[in-house]
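Whiteboard transcription, Tuesday session. T.W. wrote the structure tokens on the left side:
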């Protein structure tokens, strides 16, 4: 009798609080689940030196993320909290936007408690504990980045009220998820979606396919993105200070202006772009995606 396919997310039915948090129940993780974390960790730990930004690599050490299995969020939060006041709170998966923003605005990062099933090792549809804790959490130890993400959370309620969440979600997507940063040694990765993906770790920095364009807040908030594949364009910030300075402002006039500006397609380069590399889009042409 073949074993039933491993269920996708054993926390999906976990009882949840009003703020959508659940109990991580760290003792319930099996050896297989810890081992899967260790294999995912080892693969990225080999790829990221020389590709991830220094702040990420330093924080990974400081937070003692290692191949000792899935971290206990309480212990991780004590270490992280001592650095920037951020804590990691367990959730079962994606939570409603308003709850998500409220957590960020209060320096709580909602992290999936489940780990992806073996069959989804390389591609997952929902943020699991490896994407959230390995990809997102380390940079919360950087004081400037920590302030940026808190400000993002505070801005979320406003975007929801105005019905322009999609514009703000693009800022998150092209920085927190898929952002690159310029360093004296060259471009480095800070986006969690890349840091937790072996294929995109190499593709984002070294492939001739994608555009790499200097970050501009308005430009990013107009740019559509792809959910289920590598990005066609990556945006490059000069520093977390620049990201914070550009975003630590009233978005009201931005939202007004965005209503008058057309969206930009994910693969496009437009007038005014400071282009770092113009992609040839071979990856997408070969896939027949709308190039
Ligand atoms: N919920 N758990 C979780 N993680 C996310 O990254 C997340 C979410 N809910 C909403 C959301 N992201 C996005 O829609 C917002 O960033 C716009
Ligand atoms: Fe994410």
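and on the right, the sequence the group agreed on:
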């Amino acid at each position: 009798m073949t074993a039933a396919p491993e269920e996708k997310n054993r926390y999906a039915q976990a009882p949840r609080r009003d703020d959508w948090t659940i109990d991580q129940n760290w003792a319930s993780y099996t050896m297989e689940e810890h081992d899967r974390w260790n294999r995912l960790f080892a693969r990225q730990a080999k790829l990221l030196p020389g590709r991830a930004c220094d702040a990420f690599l330093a924080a990974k050490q400081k937070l003692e993320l290692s191949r000792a299995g899935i971290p206990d969020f309480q212990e991780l939060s004590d270490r992280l909290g001592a650095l920037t006041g951020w804590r990691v709170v367990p959730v079962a998966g994606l939570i409603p936007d308003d709850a998500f923003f409220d957590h960020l605005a209060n320096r709580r990062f909602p992290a999936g408690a489940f780990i992806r099933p073996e069959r989804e090792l390389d591609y997952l549809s929902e943020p699991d504990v490896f994407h959230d804790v390995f990809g997102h959490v380390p940079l919360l130890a950087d004081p400037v980045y920590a302030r940026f993400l808190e400000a993002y959370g505070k801005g979320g309620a406003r975007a929801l009220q105005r019905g322009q969440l999609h514009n703000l979600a693009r800022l998150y997507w092209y920085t927190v998820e898929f952002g690159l940063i310029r360093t004296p040694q060259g471009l480095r990765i800070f986006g969690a979606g890349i840091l937790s993906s072996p294929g995109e770790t190499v593709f984002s920095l070294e492939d001739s396919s994608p555009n790499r364009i200097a970050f501009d807040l308005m430009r990013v908030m107009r740019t559509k993105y792809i959910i289920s594949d590598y990005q066609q364009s990556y945006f490059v910030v000069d520093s977390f200070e620049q990201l914070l300075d550009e975003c630590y402002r009233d978005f009201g006039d931005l939202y007004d202006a965005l209503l008058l500006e057309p969206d930009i397609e994910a693969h496009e380069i437009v007038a005014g772009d400071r282009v770092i590399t113009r992609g040839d889009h071979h990856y997408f042409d070969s896939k027949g995606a709308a190039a």
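Someone added at the bottom: The two ends are 46 Å apart (CA to CA).
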